[in-house]
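Form P-L/3: holo structure prediction, ligand adenosine monophosphate.
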Amino acid sequence: MLNLVLFGPPGAGKGTQSEKLIAKYRLVHLSTGDLLRSEIQAGTELGLRAKTLMDQGILVPDEVVIGMIDNKLRENQSAAGFIFDGFPRTVPQAQALDELLQQYNTQITVMVALVVDEEELTKRLLLRGQTSGRSDDQNEDLIRRRVKEYKDKTTPVANYYESQGKYKAVKGIGEIEEIFQTICEKIETAAANVR
Ligand code: AMP
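OUTPUT (holo model):
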């Protein structure tokens, strides 16, 4: 199984690169942001509670996202692998993911982090906000808060994977295709080492 954590601040290009990776490696895409937005759209209680936090750029509680991932892993047991997008964002989430994958005798192959500086991120997100309809992409203060939240909470997650020898940084600025090729190289090197 190929299990990839795609990491990067909001606006780093995770969505674009995910689509290409899914097509190439036939992975099931698990984005906690997308899952939460579907809950909001469906008007569930979970969605309502999450929306209040998401509107402020604050992370939703670990047990909420871990529960959603647990369900999705159970529903997709015959998958060739998974791409985790926007998850894990905290060390407890990363630990829970390791434990969940162990239940299926598998593990994370590699964590690829897209690295983009804050000014470029803000520019990209404001642009996306003009067409995406996402209210959290239309306010510069909120964008900066999300980027800060990412840095504060998520840097320890990078260290967590680094300590397992699974962290690979990729520069997220440049041609989409070039970035994609670099990611594929990192994945294939890691997959040869982790089975
Ligand atoms: P995203 O689409 O990944 O940018 O996520 C949008 C919002 O959903 C974030 O600002 C958080 O409020 C929430 N969210 C998404 N994924 C997670 C996660 N793994 N842990 C906690 N909150 C999350």
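COMMENT: The radius of gyration is 16 Å.
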